[in-house]
Amino acid sequence: MAFGASGPDSPRKPKAKRPRVEDPSSPGVRLIKTSRGELWFDDGNLVLAAGGTAFRVYKGILAKSSPVLADVLSEPQPEKCEGCDVLHLRGDDPVDVARVLELIFCSPDLYYDGKPVRFSVVASWIRMADKYKMHRILDHALARLRSFFSDDASQWRDALRNHASRSIKVNAEDAIAAVKLARLTGTFSLLPTALYTCSQLSSPTLLFGVFRDDTSGTVEKLAEDDIVRCLDAREALTRLNLLSTFQVWNPRVSHMCMDTVNCLATFEHQTRAIREGSVVHQYTLSATIREVIGDVYDAFILCFACEREIEKRGEKARQDVWRMLPTFFGLDMPNWMLDTQ
Q1: Confidence of residue 20 (pLDDT cuts 50, 70, 90)
Q2: What range does the domain containing 148 cover?
């Protein structure tokens, strides 16, 4: 029997299976190994392919959202899939693509509702909107991001304590991606608080980065220059914190002190402990002063007036950190304002 001839003992040619995206004989050969994404409108007229995933959507709506894609789609596309034009989005994470397409085609109400969205979703919107000039989406997403990484001290303090603002949910590790998004979009007002949050992360997290909160397996890592900024700022903040601790516990009671003997003894005890290195309070930008030094209130005697004096000094220490925050990271931001609320 000649090579390639068919016979009873030769393997039978299997029946052709309908691929998930296209038939192998169609012009869109490169889509053979592409899986179908959840966003697939059967009556759509455009297939987008990104990172091994395909999405079937409506060309006109997508073009209206992005002048970049509108320009590309104005030209004939060489590939077809089930009668639709095929456009490859090269270098785009399919998770990012899916999220921005869902916003455009399925969840336009997210523009208007007040519900907080996960940081990773907002980050996807920003990356895609910046690349494809989706101006409305970019403005919307950056507004959500600014609501957390704010240049308003009290607003940012509340968001940091709650791990969320009114419109976005954020974990501390998300600050790494926030720094990169700030630089990507030129939204430099985000940098002081985002870099500060990074500087409070563990050293391994700061140096090696974190995985994105999705299935892409992508690691978010700061640029080397920003890692150095965070390490230098951490050292400077530690020095300032030690100085602030001395200033807060300066053994000088309130001029309205009602128990000079016991209050002065408490001040002097704290000052000695600071010198010996057994006490250094962390005047972070998120904690209240009472949270910072609540153990002192519980263990030692202070009159009401001296408690208020300590809280006033502690608040000043925190405001000093806020006022100088950009300089810790080598940022030239002359319009940075001190919020004294």
Answers
A1: very low
A2: 109-222
